[in-house]
Design goal:
This protein is an alpha+beta fold and about 270 residues long. It is built from six helices and 18 strands. The protein folds into two domains: about 120 residues, Diaminopimelate Epimerase, Chain A, domain 1 (Roll), CATH 3.10.310; about 130 residues, Diaminopimelate Epimerase, Chain A, domain 1 (Roll), CATH 3.10.310. It is globular, with a radius of gyration of 18 Å.
């Protein structure tokens, strides 16, 4: 029997913006090699696979080259599909068992709010070659360098500098981390901070909107700005808006989503 697969643009309210994720709801657990092959075929930053388990779903995320431990936009996309396709009543919480423990999603009008672990950075030394790989001669002078469970986080001087970063991706892939977060205080009205996220080591040169990066950005900017509620913008070419609420060791991430494609996996 062919399996349905959907493509959802997450952290946006319009098609062809935000971060696209493929979502496949399985009747039972699947072979990881097959899931990796499907993710490679879809060639998106993440493909999410889920199947019913207990009072919720088992959820796994794959880039085109690796399985990852935490992904925000594909979790948001998965919750969106569960409600939009009638797998869950619209007033019921979506519950996911993952490599990062229990994650939940709740609807609030057009918005979906994810409950994720906080992964705030600790100060760290700048890895050899990182600044040059980010274009250190073009305004990428970090005022802060930190390391999270997954990534390096660099605060640089301005939103304009964040938008102007032009990485050398082969060089960036030599840095031993899942990805690199570059951030600055926002100058665009209505936003608190902006960021970009690069993960060539995980097969994603630049991720359009990265929920899991905001698990680090929220706690970091809480310390910098003295508040715990933010509206953030990820300044990739596609762009996307993330509401961030820091609650101790947890972070609430709010976003919208839109389905752009429905199909079947003929080679399931």
């Amino acid at each position: 029997m062919a399996l349905r697969i959907l493509q959802v643009d997450a952290f946006t309210d319009r098609p062809f913006a935000g971060n696209p994720a493929a979502v496949c709801i399985l009747p039972r657990p699947a072979d990881p090699t097959w899931m990796q092959n499907v993710a490679r075929e879809m060639n998106l930053s993440e493909t999410a696979f889920l199947h019913a388990e207990g009072d919720g779903y088992r959820l796994r995320w794959f880039t085109p080259v690796v399985e990852v431990d935490l992904c925000g936009h594909a979790t948001l996309a998965a919750a969106h599909v569960l409600w939009e396709e009638g797998h869950l009543p619209r007033d019921r919480q979506a519950r996911f068992q993952t490599r990062s423990g229990l994650l939940t999603a709740d609807r609030g009008g057009e918005w979906i709010e994810l409950d994720f672990p906080a992964t705030g950075p600790a100060p760290a030394a700048l890895p050899a070659g990182l600044l040059a790989a980010l274009g250190g001669g073009r305004g990428v002078t970090p005022g802060y360098v930190g390391k999270t469970r997954f990534d390096y986080l660099l605060e640089i001087g301005s939103e304009a500098a964040v938008r102007a970063v032009q990485p050398d991706f082969p060089a960036l892939a030599s840095v031993e981390a899942r990805g690199i977060i570059v951030t600055a205080r926002a100058s665009t009205p209505g936003f608190d901070f902006v960021s970009r996220f690069f993960a060539p080591r995980a097969g994603v040169a630049e991720d359009p909107v990265t929920g899991s990066a905001h698990c680090a950005l929220g706690p970091y900017w809480e310390g910098r700005l003295g508040k715990g509620d933010f509206v953030a913008f990820q300044a990739s070419a596609r762009g996307g808006t993330v509401r961030v609420r820091v609650l101790g060791e947890r972070v609430r991430l709010g976003g919208r989503a839109v389905t752009v494609l429905r199909g079947e996996l003929a080679a399931a």
